[in-house]
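Bumping with the actual sequence this time:
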Amino acid sequence: SKACDTCASCIKMHILQHPNLKIVFALPAARSEKNDDNGEGKFQPDIREEIRSQIAEKAKNPYFHFEIPKATQINIGTIRDVKKESSLAPYEKGMKIFIISDAEMMNDTSANSMLKVLEEPLSDTLFLLTTSRKEKLLPTIVSRCQSVRCELLTDADIERALTERETIPPEQARLVSRLASGDYSAALGLVHEDLVSERAEAVRFLRATLSGRSVTLLEDIEERIAENDRGAVDQFLSLLLVWFRDAMLMKEQGVEGIINQDQQEDLLKFVSRFGNANFPASIGAVERALELLRGNVYLPLVLLSLSVQLKRILLNAK
């Protein structure tokens, strides 16, 4: 039946505090002098507060993406909790719902444990596994789930939502929608960023890469990873990716269709200097860096490797 949005059960679900609902997401390795029964340890107060804060944020904004600082994986202890709770009767009338956010973050041990849970489903229990990287899940897990594909939004969809829901000025909404690449969560994050400054940082990294001054490049990398914020580096690489795609479009068909319309002059200079470069190879290098980043590879290694590849691709074409 349709939710009424007024009863106690609906209100608790709306704020993600219903006892029949459990949300699972990647967490940092727990550290304390005394471990729990699973050997996982107990979380520090700041991490527990961060978890509560992010769940509250998710309740306010369904597009919010859980990203606990220093989170590395969905560990076996978490899945054991899911297994135990799923075997119990519901706390309240109705179904029990377990949402496994970014399910690809399960390690091999936790994924195999989750598989056992899915092999023996209970009639009053629903498991929702969300992921943008289905290929990273165990095939046996995928085969036991019903796939529901959520397509990327169009630029027009995002632009309209930003202007109507967030009252963002049309010009800013247009730029953000293009940079978001079909992801409304990314668009909401970009709304509050200084995009001019962020894009300038991406270009600065590219210049440091091509300058031949390794000291400058290493300083730039150290500055970028100082906070160990993978989300910020992800955004930085995404903006660099857009830059190369714009450069390729400009080379092939001029300014029509490029995202960074306000950076036409800088793009023209870049294309005039590196027009013979293999831009698809540059795009592939950044995409691989993003893949490594999202796979929790050591941050300095990701950026240093990328800089070496881009330097080879661009300078060898001059």
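The tokens above came from a reply further down the thread. The chain has a mean pLDDT of 84.
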